[in-house]
Amino acid sequence: MIEKLKQFLADVSKEMKKVSWPTKEQLQESTVVVLSVCFIITVIVFGIDAAMTKIVELIF
Fold first, then answer.
1. Per-residue pLDDT at 8
2. Which of 2, 4, 23, 28 is the most buried (most CB within 10 A)?
3. pLDDT interval class at 22 (50, 70, 90)
4. Contact 30/22 with Cβ under 8 angstroms?
5. pTM over the 0.90 mark
6. What local confidence, expressed as pLDDT, does residue 13 receive?
7. Is residue 33 part of a domain?
């Protein structure tokens, strides 16, 4: 059991060295894109919710 755990951790370490990590600038750009898309989707969902609320109020 311990030997399997050691092998697993060695494999994880080996694979992590292969990962290409983003630069600080790339990470900042990606963060801005994600936050912008989240904001846009939030506005769209809010608009749809407000419209549906008005429609339901008109029906009832």
1. 97
2. 28
3. very high
4. yes
5. no
6. 95
7. yes
